[in-house]
């Protein structure tokens, strides 16, 4: 086996289970010698905070924005820096570097951007998470979801405990019949099959063309909600309900942290669509700022502000247009 590390591009639509799969993997002893690069479509680095709780794994963040758009030179720089730092430390080389890309990223531009790293001989493969319950609906609305599944050498089905897989399997068979499929209910075993899985033919993957070219993500808004100073705990809880009720099926993803006033430990808040998971205390993330990233389609900050009525929250956007693609 060559000593060059694998580069695994972990893609998959918003909320399809990328971070969870990585957590399952990092809990296993076989995960030693893995490095992570995390990219999120929002300035609150939720995935980074979750994965940091796993502890001990070398991790780099890509600054805010969508890695498929304008951050690809940062990616090359980051990979080089991780490899050089590891060499300087005298530790054994990484076996794999995993990029968890944002749930809106298209794999094609990311793969193409790796060209300057060709002399390093990284073995590249693309793994896509596919939410058994939601993939078919997401693919019907979002080119990004189709592009992610189409680019994958391996598709791993998630949330098998919540849903049958017939629709998602039919979708993958139609979009990418050659992909290796991982349909494994046991989560530790699922993670092993993904990260210890064999290499694929990089040439095939580098051939990937995006379904929608390099266009921006025109229907998707990434908004940031922060609480006014006088907001109470009840205001925070009400907000979650109001958000789901007002946005309905336009709501794609909510991630972030809230704090009960007067306490230090933040609670991780997550929703996929309008379905909120129970809040999870994150004692290891005391320094994170409070706030929620809301990713929705066909929704502006002004509309959301109006829809939330007098709630004591600020609704902002990330920079002027956080997901603006700059096709190179
Ligand atoms: N029941 C169940 N829930 C899961 C599974 N995988 C992920 N989830 C939940 O789905 C939600 C989203 O999971 P993440 O792992 O954060 O998804 P992601 O793809 O990293 O999300 P983004 O980074 O926003 O694109 C979380 O609330 C998870 O706990 C699974 O296999 N079963």
Description of the structure:
Keywords: Chaperone, Hydrolase, Nucleotide-binding. The protein has eleven helices and 14 strands. The chain is an alpha/beta fold and 328 residues long. It has two domains: 6-206, P-loop containing nucleotide triphosphate hydrolases (Rossmann fold), CATH 3.40.50.300; 220-317, 2-Layer Sandwich (Hypothetical Protein Yjia, Chain: A,domain 2). Helix 1 (18-26) packs across helix 8 and helix 5 (135-141) crosses helix 6 (143-151). 45% of the residues are buried. The chain binds guanosine-5'-triphosphate. Guanosine-5'-triphosphate binds at residues 12, 14-20, 47, 103, 129, 158-159, 161-162, 253, 255, 270, 272, 277. Guanosine-5'-triphosphate (GTP) is lined by residues 12, 14-20, 47, 103, 129, 158-159, 161-162, 253, 255, 270, 272, 277.
Task: Throw out a few tags for this protein.
single chain, 328 residues, alpha/beta, Rossmann fold, Hypothetical Protein Yjia, Chain: A,domain 2, 2 domains, seven-stranded parallel β-sheet, seven-stranded antiparallel β-sheet, 11 helices, 31% helix, 23% strand, globular, disordered C terminus, binds guanosine-5'-triphosphate
């Amino acid at each position: 086996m060559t000593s060059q590390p694998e580069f695994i591009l972990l893609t998959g639509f918003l909320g399809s289970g990328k971070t969870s799969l990585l957590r399952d993997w990092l809990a296993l002893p076989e995960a030693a010698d893995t490095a992570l690069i995390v990219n999120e479509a929002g300035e609150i680095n939720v995935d980074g905070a979750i994965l940091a709780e796993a502890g001990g794994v070398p991790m780099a963040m890509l600054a805010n924005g969508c890695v498929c758009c304008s951050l690809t030179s940062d990616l090359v720089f980051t990979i080089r820096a991780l490899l050089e730092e590891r060499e300087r430390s005298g530790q054994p080389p990484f076996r794999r570097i995993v990029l968890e890309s944002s749930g809106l990223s298209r794999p094609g531009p990311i793969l193409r951007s790796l060209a300057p790293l060709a002399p390093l001989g990284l073995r590249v493969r693309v793994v896509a998470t596919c939410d058994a319950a939601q993939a078919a609906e997401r693919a019907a609305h979002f080119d990004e979801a189709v592009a992610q599944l189409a680019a994958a050498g391996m598709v791993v089905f998630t949330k098998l405990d919540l849903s049958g897989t017939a629709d998602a399997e039919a979708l993958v068979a139609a979009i990418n019949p050659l992909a290796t499929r991982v349909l494994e209910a046991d989560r530790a075993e699922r993670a092993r099959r993904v990260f210890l899985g064999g290499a694929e033919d990089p040439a095939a993957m580098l051939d990937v063309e995006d379904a929608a070219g390099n266009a921006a993500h025109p229907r998707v808004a990434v908004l940031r909600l922060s609480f006014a100073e006088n907001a109470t705990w009840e205001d925070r809880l009400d907000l979650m309900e109001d958000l789901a009720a007002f946005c309905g099926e336009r709501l794609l993803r909510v991630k972030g942290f809230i704090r009960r006033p007067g306490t230090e430990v933040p609670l991780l808040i997550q929703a996929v669509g309008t379905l909120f998971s129970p809040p999870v205390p994150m004692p290891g993330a005391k320094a994170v700022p409070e706030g929620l990233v809301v990713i929705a389609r066909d929704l502006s900050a002004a509309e959301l502000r109006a829809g939330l009525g007098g709630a004591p929250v600020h609704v902002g956007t990330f920079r002027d247009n956080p997901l603006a693609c700059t096709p190179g």
